[in-house]
Every structure is written in C-alpha cells, then in structure tokens.
Amino acid sequence: MSTPVVVTAYFHPASGQHDQVVEALGPAIAAVHEEPGCELYAIHDAPDGTIVMLEKWTTVRELDEHGSGEAVRALNASLEGLLASPTEVTRLVPLPAGTEKQGQL
C-alpha cells in the first residue's frame, strides 16, 4: 500500500489582488478534482490574506503527474502578475495518530 501525500501551497496575493487570485484558482480546482489520485484540493483564507491550498494525493507518482500537468500550467499562467511572492509548496507525509478518522487527512 502506498503512503498518501499531503501538500500545502501558500499563495501570497499582491496588494489588491486577493479576489483575482481566488478567481484564478477556481478553474484549476475544478480541473484538478478530475485528476487521478486527487483526494483533496481545497483553498482556505488565512487571516493575513494568504490563500492556503490543502491537497491530498493517493501516491507521489500521481502528485508528480499533477505537478507537470495542464491544470498546473494553466493555473500558473492565470496567476501571472497577481502574487507578491512565489507560491510556497510543501509536501508532507502523514504521521497518523489518535483515531483513524481524526488523526490524519
């Protein structure tokens, strides 16, 4: 059995561009939800205006294919000029603890 991969991606909108970043993420979310191995791909607002993407992928291979896929290329193009700094992406490996339902994504 493979170990799932959890990813965080932090998008830092340029001044006045928050809503445009959210709008740019919409089509990518819909496309990525159709990709093999995508278990979770959801954006959240942080108090400082950062947009945080939480992702969960069934395998590293499927995540890698996602990263080189058309949805990511289109997303990167749509974000051009909207971000104050590069997107911060971190891959995480779950360390399950507690109950099966609550102890991991």
What structural keywords apply?
Alpha-Beta Plaits, globular, 30% helix, 4-stranded antiparallel sheet, alpha+beta, 105 residues
CATH topology: Alpha-Beta Plaits
CATH class category name: Alpha Beta
Average pLDDT metric: 94
Give the distance, in angstroms, between the N- and C-terminal Cα atoms: 17 Å
Sheet bearing the most strands, described?
A: 4 strands, antiparallel
Total count of domains:
1
Q: What structural class should be given to the helix and strand makeup?
A: alpha+beta
Count of helical regions: 3
Tell me which CATH architecture applies here. Answer: 2-Layer Sandwich
Helix/strand order: EHEEHHE
Number of DSSP strand runs: 4
Q: DSSP strand (E) fraction?
A: 25-35%
Q: How do the strands of the widest beta sheet line up side by side?
A: 2-3-1-4
Rg, Å, rounded: 14 Å
Q: How would the global form be characterised?
A: globular
Helix proportion range: 25-40%
Low-pLDDT runs: none
In short:
With 105 residues, this protein is of the alpha+beta class. The chain contains three helices and four strands, in the order βαββααβ.
How would you describe this protein?
There is one protein chain. With 105 residues, the protein is of the alpha+beta class. It has a single domain (5-92), classed as 2-Layer Sandwich (Alpha-Beta Plaits), CATH 3.30.70. The chain is built from three helices and four strands, in the order βαββααβ. A four-stranded antiparallel beta sheet has the order 2-3-1-4. A hairpin with a 5-residue loop joins strand 2 (38-45) and strand 3 (51-57). The longest helix has 15 residues, at 18-32. The mean pLDDT is 94.
